[in-house]
TrEMBL record:
Cofactor: Zn(2+)
Sorted UniProt keywords: Antibiotic resistance, Hydrolase, Metal-binding, Periplasm, Signal, Zinc
Cited InterPro entries: Beta-lactamase_class-B_CS, Metallo-B-lactamas, NDM-1-like, RibonucZ/Hydroxyglut_hydro
Family, per entry: Belongs to the metallo-beta-lactamase superfamily. Class-B beta-lactamase family.
Reaction(s) catalysed (UniProt annotation): a beta-lactam + H2O = a substituted beta-amino acid
CDD domains per UniProt: metallo-hydrolase-like_MBL-fold
GO biological process annotation, one example: response to antibiotic
Name this polypeptide is given: beta-lactamase
Predominant subcellular localization, coarse grouping: periplasm
Broad enzyme group: hydrolase
An annotated Gene Ontology molecular function: zinc ion binding
UniProt subcellular location: Periplasm
């Protein structure tokens, strides 16, 4: 049987916001990941609906990309709940170091939030009457965590494993190692007894072997030529902007892309194109894949 227990509720969101995983215990409640800031009021409404008058006790973040923690501030303000973040991110959040946090680097937004506790790889958390193991999952993000419940054989995989792939391998854009770490994370997941994966984006799935095979094939393809990873990141970053803004003047695309430090690094290390050429290429790729369309002087989200 692959159904999740009643104590685990998955709020499947669109690609702008990560999924929200609600854990409803007899005496405690928690949420894993809180979506993007522009969806924060909707996140609050969804959480309140699921809680049915109960209090939210905890927020836990798998990693601190903006689409996973953008609802932290509004939930903290409404519920006064405790928040736990990956231990490696503590100083960045404590001092709200916008240079070290990923928001500025990717041209994204996040309301400032605080934290009460940290989670380290190897920690065991008691949530919703179940024990969850926090496991290191570098690759997409060097400090990311995934959460595994042996009792239910459920894995919250964040962006380390989706049904069809995984998140952009961001460290590689800056010339750092990420492909090897993603491969090790996939090997770690393969060694767990999992019957259901709750990914950071997309519906929960039970074909873990198939997902791992697709992820490994994708990783081999990207690692064989790092330019492919940079090109993929370029398309993803532009699509994210479109998801948030819905329409962007075509003339603004090159400037928007080059204003992102992570993209500037990827262009310097791998792509080596003019902003105009890359902007035109990225827009055309989104149109080609039916993820966007051009109307007059604007690129529109689809």
């Amino acid at each position: 049987m692959n159904a999740l227990p009643d104590s685990i509720r998955v709020l499947e969101r669109g690609w702008l916001s990560s999924n929200n995983i609600m854990l409803l215990g007899r005496h405690d409640t928690a949420i894993i990941d809180t979506g993007y800031v522009s969806h924060a009021p909707q996140t609050l409404d969804l959480v309140r609906h699921v809680l049915h008058g109960r209090h939210l006790d905890q927020i836990l973040n798998t990693h601190l990309h903006s689409d996973h923690c953008g609802g932290n501030a509004i939930l903290q303000a409404h519920f006064g709940c405790q928040t736990s973040i990956p231990v490696a991110e503590a100083d960045k959040v404590r001092h709200w170091d916008v240079e070290a946090l990923s928001f500025k680097a990717t041209g994204q937004r996040c309301d400032r939030f605080s934290f009460d506790a940290t989670i380290a790889p190897g920690d065991v958390l008691k949530l919703a009457d179940m024990e969850w193991q926090a496991l290191a999952a570098p690759g997409h993000d060097p400090h990311a965590l995934i959460f595994y419940c042996p009792q239910e054989k459920v894995l919250v995989s964040a962006d380390a494993l989706w049904e069809n792939g995984f998140g952009v391998i961001f460290p590689e854009l800056d010339g750092k190692s990420g492909f090897a770490e993603e491969r090790a994370t996939l090997d770690l997941i393969a060694g767990l007894e999992v019957r259901m994966v709750i990914p950071g984006h997309g519906a929960p799935f039970s074909d873990i072997a198939g997902a791992l095979a697709r992820a490994r094939s994708r990783l081999d393809y990207l690692a064989a030529d790092p330019v492919r990873n940079a090109q993929n990141a370029l398309k993803v970053l532009l699509k994210f902007l479109l998801l948030e803004r819905q329409r962007i003047p075509l003339a603004d695309v090159p400037t928007l892309l080059t204003s992102m430090p992570v993209f500037a690094a990827a262009n310097h290390n791998y792509l080596k194109q003019t902003p105009e050429a890359l902007g035109q290429w990225a827009a055309s790729q989104l149109v080609r894949s039916a993820a966007a369309r051009v109307e007059g002087e604007y690129l529109l989200n689809v």
